Amino acid sequence: MTTPFRLLSLPCAPLKRVIQCFDLRELVACSVLSKRMNVASRGAGFRYDFFVELNGNFLRVYRYMDNTFFFNLDDRINYLVVQNPRHREQARWSKLGLSTGEWLYRILHVTNYQQFQLYIGDAPTIDVNCRLLFSALSEIKSVSVITLQNETNTFVQKVIDVILPKTSTFFIQTHHMSKKELQKMLIQNLVSLEIYCDGLRFQLDDLLMTNAT
């Protein structure tokens, strides 16, 4: 039989140990209870890296074989779906008045993320403000972008335009890239830039204009 206790009444070291027993779903859930709980959850020292997938009107945030968070990019839909693939469980959470962008920030921030891999599929059928979606994200150590379509749509370019200034290491794998899109990436102040693109012709003039080391 377990005895209930006040979690935030614990000293720092025992509180950290208790929170370190949480799984990802429990960690994120506790972080939205209060500002103190958010600080305590982030201070537990988790360090996760994530896959983020934008496909159609949906955003998915997940780790391999761990809890997955599904969002509808239409913020009028006031719930998200959380799945646990190991136990085949699914729960519906209220968004608690937070936007999808604020939820994305909360999940990544509370786990002290350093990098994430972003997959971009079909463009959404609704108007999505990419700058607002990613506005809460601060400096990201490394971002990998992989496009799943044969043509780079305007939505992909909008996402890249918002993400690029926030990172120092950028990797992109895509099926198509225009000269203008290439030059826009080359002038960014990046430590590292990797581009994999079918048929992309890289010339000396492109090399001379790059700021990446």
Automatic annotation (TrEMBL):
It comes from the Eukaryota. Residues 4-54 form the F-box domain. This is F-box domain-containing protein. It comes from Caenorhabditis remanei (Caenorhabditis vulgaris).
